[in-house]
Amino acid sequence: MSAIGTLVAIWIKRARRGPMDPVDSATLVQGSGIIGNADQGGWRQVTVITRERWDALMDELKGDIDPSARRANLLVSGVSLVDVRNRILQIGECRIQLVNETRPCERMDEALDGLRDAMRRDWGGGAFGYILDGGEIRVGDDVRLE
Prior knowledge:
- There is one protein chain.
- The protein contains three helices and eleven strands; from the N terminus they run βββββαβββααβββ.
- It is mainly beta and 146 residues long.
- A seven-stranded mixed β-barrel has the order 1-6-5-9-8-7-11.
């Protein structure tokens, strides 16, 4: 049985180390990535974090920063991304093969002191993967972890 959740937010990074632009919808391209996103091809075509994990990190660190500071492409709710290596995340009709944990970088401590270390536990930095089946995704779409 698969867990069911919701796509809460979408961000597109227009350049390496560039700003994360919030959008209501995006197009995923099989084997490539998100149209307009700086990261294309390879294993890390899309990055995903969960609302629940982000909120827990903010509570732990007494922070109040927007989840876009994580620099992930997708924010989901209602599914766990702990140890999801080789699992499939379905958003609407699109499918993403999750490859591994997204490790936090030094930019996390620039956003909030202590965030990088806190994210190192239990896949706190989220997961990354490549697109198996592309198409349009929209905030509010159902999310299933298979």
